[in-house]
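REQUEST FORM: STRUCTURE PREDICTION
Request ID: SP-0412
Submitted by: Lab K.M.
Chain count: 1
Length (residues): 83
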Amino acid sequence: LSFFPGAKIGVLGINGSGKSTLLRIMAGVDKDFSGEARAQAGTKVGYLPQEPQLDDSKDVRGNVEDGMREALDALSRLDAIYA
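STATUS: Completed
RESULT:
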């Protein structure tokens, strides 16, 4: 498959046709497959699981912050530098 630079695409198909599997492979979540799948350099692949694993001991904010931990840690480091 190929797309125009900057294009945003969707994947359509009937249940069980492999849409989620394709997206997990392209996002690097699934690595156990035969064949070749690679995105062109500079391509961004976003994937949000249909049923994310949430921590029942945390509220919504806590779970969202866990998902954004890397970005929040980077902001904390910047805050420390600018302080």
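NOTES: The chain has two domains: 1-50, 52-83.
Reviewed by: T.R.
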